[in-house]
Amino acid sequence: MMNHFIVLAVLLPLRTCYTTHSQQESTVFPVTYLNVSKELAFQRLLVEWDVGKSAHDAELAMSFEIQVRRTGETTTVWTEFHNVTLDKSGDPLHWMWDSDLPLECMSHSVRIRTKAEASKIWSEWSPWKTVLGLDTLNDSGPQIFPNEKIVEEGSDITLCCIGRKGHVIEEFSLYPAPHVFNHTNSQIGLLTLKNVAHQAVPHITVYCRESCTEEECYDHAVLFVGKPPNTPNDFSCETQDMRTVTCTWSQGGDTYLYGNHSPKYTLSEEFSQNPIPCTVTCSEQCSCSWDIGQQRIYNITMTVENPLGKKTAMDVFDVTHRIYPAAPFQLWEECRDTEITLYWKYQNKGFELFCQTEVVQPDGKVELHNSSDSHLHYASITLSGLQPYTEYTARVHCAAAQHFWRWSEWSEAQTIRTMEATPSGKLDIWREITQVQGGRNVTLFWKQAPGFRANGGSISYEVTWEKEEGGSKLERMSFSSACNSTRISIDNHSYRVSIMAKNDVNYSLPSVLIIPRGTGTEEELSGSELQEEQINGTDDGIFISWEPRHMYDSYIIDWCNFPTLQPCDLQWKRFRPNTSSALINSAAFVPGVRYNFHIYGSVGNRVSLLKKKTGYLRELPPLFDPKVEKVELTFNAVTLSWDSYPTNESQSGFVRGYHVYVSPIQEVCSLQGSKKHVLPDNSVLCKYTIENPEEKRYTVEHLLSNTKYKLAVKAYTGGGETPIVNFIYIDTPFNSNMLYLLVLLVIVPSLVAAICRWKLNWVKECCCPVIPSPNKSKVLSFKEFKNGSEKVLKISDCIPDMLAVDNKAETQELHPWSQLSSAPTEAKTDHNSSWIYPNENEERAFTHTPTHQTHTWFENFAYSSHFADESCPYQIPETLETGKPELSVVLYQPHYYFDIFNEDAASTPRETPGRKTSLRYISQTDVHCLGRRL
Amino acid sequence: MPQCPPCHSSSSPAVTKGLLILWAVPSQGGRPLPPPTLQQIQALVRHMAEDAQELFTFYEENQHLAIHHLCRTNRPPEWLRGPVLGPGGLRELRGTMARMAQALQDITRHQRDLNPPGAEILRRLASTHLKVRGLLSNLDGLFPAPSPVPGHRPPASPTAPTKIFRQKLAGCQILWSYARFMAKLSARLEARSRREKRRSHRGPRPPTRS
């Protein structure tokens, strides 16, 4: 029973809950009140509605679906679900909707339906509630909405033009005309601009016209396209005098909105919650100033606002930390030779200042000197370590000493000159000594050394000199500041020269030079015993080196800037004792001029010449070519000489030698000892090089006789040589030796031949008798062969040149001469006989002269009657041509032979072999020669 | 200041501009300037007529009002309707020029809302305004009159438009009417000058003013 009760107790509330819930699910709360109005300033619809009181009492959470519809459009333009939990106050509900179309353009209707959140059932829609647009009115003419509007650049806007009832909008346009969506040809014209851009013109003009042309048919509107103001990012406030604060800021970019639409600036103070009573003025920057009174800490908000937006900037500050002092003024000074005390005044001094003085030195260097003020109305600073009689420019600016904020503007710059003082440093002096009759002329030079300072306005120089040994009166001369040299005449004693600079205050320290005792010779001064060394220049100058010696306290190099002029502008440069080289340069140095440098060592004001050097900044080719003064010509050589060509300092470089150019035959340089040289026009010359500049004579050999040549002689320096322009032309003579040779080779043999022909019989008798006399044979002319009046030939002692064996009797019938005459070739001769030559030379010397002529032979023959019995022990069987019996003609190699082309004078060839064979002789020397070779 | 010689009708615009400046500048050293001659007035009016036409043309183009000839109204404001030279002659011109000076100030004020500082339209309006004041100064020299009451200003337009476009259009219409008025005035003065020259050729007559 108890359990049953408990079950009932649980089920009953559940039942109650379920019933209530079911009721809520099924209950709807329709809109009982709906009102729609419009707020034209914001183009906004205001919707107000309510539901039944029971819903409020139940504090239901409800959903509302709200729809907006425009006249003439079948679909709703907006649908939104709005959730609200009702309260018991019973106040109506509100909703706002911003329209993208001006509400004037057409009527807008709203309806709502409701649903309790717990419920699934929507109420019925409320009836449409409409707010009328101006399209329903019968106005006096068309109207554009919005008529004037400021549009933010980049946004969208829709305009409409409402025509009168019964009229159609025919034209609805803009100028300038951006790309728009245009809908006309009804009572309402619509025009939409997307992403509006600022045009070149300040505003956009809108035109609307109905389908008529009267004045009342038009309407116009203006659109401004602009930008909201920029946030001023440099907003800052400060004070100059602790009485007035000034805030400044930049205007920012152009908003394209002007006049009444331009940005407006307002300042307010957050602590006092009051607007700042200041007037904003803008030119390059905007500023606003006001009196601060006793307030020290500020929180300033600056607001800039235009119709498109508002921006703010803030600055929180303590006035004592924002002091920007006024520039110091009324500067004055007290001067000494190395010090300046500068004074200045402040404005509105009520706080301690820290000042900075800028000093600009004559060389443009800037120094800053800090100082703190100590006087009430003015401040000062003493600038020390300055140069006497020098102009300085000074100016001052200041800042708050306690809380630095920023420097003031600079004061006016003050130019101040320090007072004069004694010249500091010494003059750098030098001399040039010239030997003259009875003494010396000494030209003294001086210049201000790097460490020298005149320290005054008017400088002059004083030169004194006296004999070093004493006993002479001190000579003295003064010169103005424009002078830098003078000439004095002294005898050959040693002199002490002193030069000082002088200004209005005092003399400088003297610079002393000892002129040593003179010997009276020019050589002593010129240092002719010293070898002059050649040096080469570089792009940076002429480099000079020397061997330093410990005894010298300085070195001096002197030279002439213009060596060819008189005076030559003597220059000198002094070097420290440990220096051993120097790069000498001068603006006067030019290429092609020889400069002479003298290097001196100085000790105790006495100088001695150490070295002489000469050189060019850059060598150039010779100024002129050697003039060939003498030409000696033979048939195969030419000798050129140019003795007067100078190689001294008049040249634009050191002459290193000469080139002799000769035109070759047929453009090929084959002349012995020369090199090929190609000219710019590609013509070829033969070049001979002479490397000794003092050798001014040259012979070109191996020329051809009776030939035309062109020659040129060029000097060359370290800078090269000039182009070849002029040539010397020669014609080699005819070679007379050749004529003599011709005579010897042609005429003499011809004469001999003629004489021979003329005295043929005599010659024949003499040289070629029919039967030669053995007594005339050379073979028998030796002493050992003589036997009384008879000459005896011992065959065993003979050395034959050649051996030929005739082994056929038929050979007598063969006529080698006929073979020779019919086919006089070597080949045929070789077939007919075998030849062994003693040596190669003989082989070459022997020539078978092919001829069709008959020949007469003059021969030394030896006769052998017992050839068949005595065989030579050295005989070689191979020489016997046994295999060729038909050609076994014995030929004899004569020691001498001579052909005479004369058939009449000579015996016929037919006779000669017959004579040989019949006599059967053979040269014994032939046998010996062959035997010896084996 | 050296006295300016009388201008002839054929004088160049540069000379008349010089005249304008001469009269726009207050007299120096307390010495009153000699009154201008009729020829000088005539030259100045001719120059102002040209200037008025140029200003209207520029304004109409610059303000995009050339469409449909909106500005070229046949109903000018009453004070510019004329006659350009009534029975009072040039003396009556002072009132018109005073109203025109005021109108130019209003147009300039409206244009300042539409244009950046230093815009060409503002420069031209200022220049024309200076010329109108110069002519007024000339007329004051030619026809000395009792000093006006301090702070006296010509009455404002009865219906000053408030909408920007209406202001632009009203200004444009005033400039159009002013240009026509000055053209007519210049023509009348030229005609009168020619008549007087013809008379002076017939026989000497004492010089007259207006």
Automatic annotation (TrEMBL), chain A:
Protein name as catalogued: Oncostatin-M-specific receptor subunit beta
Q: Which residues form the signal peptide?
A: 1-19
Where in or outside the cell it occurs: the entry states: Membrane
The UniProt entry, under InterPro entries, shows: FN3_dom, FN3_sf, Hematopoietin_rcpt_Gp130_CS, Ig-like_fold, LIFR_D2, Type1_Cytokine_Rcpt_Type2
Q: Which UniProt keywords apply?
A: Disulfide bond, Glycoprotein, Membrane, Receptor, Repeat, Signal, Transmembrane, Transmembrane helix
* GO CC annotations on file: plasma membrane
State the similarity comment. Belongs to the type I cytokine receptor family. Type 2 subfamily.
SUPFAM superfamilies under this entry? Fibronectin type III (SSF49265)
A GO molecular-function term, please?
A: cytokine receptor activity
Which Pfam families does the protein's record reference? fn3, LIFR_D2, LIFR_D4
Q: Which domain of life is it from?
A: Eukaryota
This protein's membrane topology, according to the annotation, is: Single-pass type I membrane protein
**Ranges for the Fibronectin type-III domain?**
325-421, 423-524, 622-735
**Keyword set includes Coiled coil:** no
From TrEMBL, chain B:
Q: Which GO terms describe its cellular component?
A: extracellular space
The UniProt keywords, alphabetically, are:
Cytokine, Secreted
UniProt key word Secreted: yes
InterPro entries named in the record: 4_helix_cytokine-like_core, Leukemia_IF, Leukemia_IF/oncostatin
Task: Check the record and name the Pfam families matching this protein.
Answer: LIF_OSM
Q: Where in the cell is it found?
A: Secreted
**Any GO MF annotation of the entry:** leukemia inhibitory factor receptor binding
**GO BP, sorted A to Z:** immune response; leukemia inhibitory factor signaling pathway; positive regulation of cell population proliferation; regulation of cell differentiation
The highest taxon in the source lineage is Eukaryota
In this chain, composition skew of type Basic residues spans: 194-204
Q: Where is this region: Disordered?
A: 191-210
The question of whether Secreted is a record keyword is answered with yes
Q: Which SMART domains match?
A: LIF_OSM
The UniProt function text for this chain reads: LIF has the capacity to induce terminal differentiation in leukemic cells. Its activities include the induction of hematopoietic differentiation in normal and myeloid leukemia cells, the induction of neuronal cell differentiation, and the stimulation of acute-phase protein synthesis in hepatocytes.
Q: Which PANTHER family match?
A: LEUKEMIA INHIBITORY FACTOR
Q: What is this protein called?
A: Leukemia inhibitory factor
